[in-house]
Specification:
Radius of gyration: 38 Å
Shape: elongated
Number of strands: 5
Largest sheet: 3 strands, antiparallel
Distance between the termini: 52 Å
Helix content: 55-70%
């Protein structure tokens, strides 16, 4: 019996579907972990750069770098580090549970969640590319700044005056801003590549979840003994027979009346008058009350 990520599958065809589905979700977990580590490194490097700047200048020169490094530590850890990793882990174990229980409802929910994963990772890739271009533009802007005593100038803007800042403070702030924008540009580029890889795996997971749902709907199973086929109501098995025509005779019987008694064995009802229990006189006079019993 084939085994996939510790799940014993009943046959090879279902094992291939389960293997692709679980592998796609395992890859999403790994990519989410890498994304969380990347964001943790980014947050640490940017915080270190800002701390060094404050150590040099105090509060006199603190550039607005426009990144999420100013978020609170708890929110940064949850949004950028834990969330991209914990949600894929939960989905992976949900997939294993759905395979073990042959649950169609769980597979249908996985189709929805993997579709949402596809949409979210696609948007994340686009946003990271947008942030990368934004950081490059800001880096080019800062590189054109000329520091002076009590302010700085830019070729496209009038002079900015800051009476608290000295030339050394301005140079330190410019250097820090350039370093932060460079770090964030690299992080955004790598994050965009990870998001594209995650997008591909989410597409595969959504396709395989839909394939799994269709297989379960066709009464195939991943785990356990195979299900019996659905009973064929048109296979000529014993059952209650409805009278379709009227028997030839003086006592005509309305169409559609059930045959009373046990199951009818054989093929067809004889064309002539049916021999059976005698029909009472009042029933013969009232055809609506006539019933046939074999």
């Amino acid at each position: 019996m084939p085994s996939t990520f510790g799940v014993l599958i009943s046959d090879e065809r279902m094992a291939r579907i389960a293997r692709h589905l679980l592998t796609a979700h395992a890859m999403i977990v790994c990519l989410g972990l890498l994304y969380g580590i990347l964001q943790a490194i980014s947050s640490h490097l940017i915080s270190q750069e800002m701390s060094e700047l404050r150590a040099k200048t105090g509060d006199r020169a603190t550039p607005n770098v426009g990144t999420d490094a100013t978020m609170g530590p708890v929110l940064t850890i949850f949004v950028n580090i834990l969330l991209p990793f914990l949600v894929p882990v939960l989905l992976f174990f949900l997939v294993r549970a759905a395979l073990k229980s042959n649950s169609m409802s769980s597979m249908q929910m996985l189709c929805l969640t993997d579709g949402v994963c596809t949409c979210c990772t696609g948007c994340t890739a686009a946003i990271m590319v947008m942030y990368f271009t934004m950081m490059e533009e800001r880096s080019n802007y800062v590189s054109d700044i000329t520091c002076e005593n009590f302010g700085w100038t830019h070729p496209n803007e009038p002079k900015k005056v800051d009476t608290r800042s000295t030339l050394e403070d301005c140079e330190a702030a410019k250097e820090t801003a350039m370093s932060v924008f460079e770090i964030y540009s690299i992080i955004c580029l790598i994050a965009a590549l990870l998001a594209v890889c995650m997008l591909c795996n989410c597409c595969v997971a959504a396709y395989k979840a839909n394939q799994s749902f269709n297989a379960l709907q066709a009464r195939s199973v991943f785990c356990g003994p195979p299900l019996p086929p659905l009973p064929d109501m048109l296979s000529g098995q014993n059952g209650v027979v409805m009278v379709i025509g009227q028997p030839i005779g003086t006592g005509a019987m309305p169409m559609g009346q059930p045959v009373l008694g046990g199951p009818v064995m054989g093929s067809a009802v004889p064309a002539g008058p049916v021999m059976g229990t005698a029909v009472p006189k009042d029933a013969a006079e009232d055809p609506s009350q006539a019933q046939l019993q074999v």
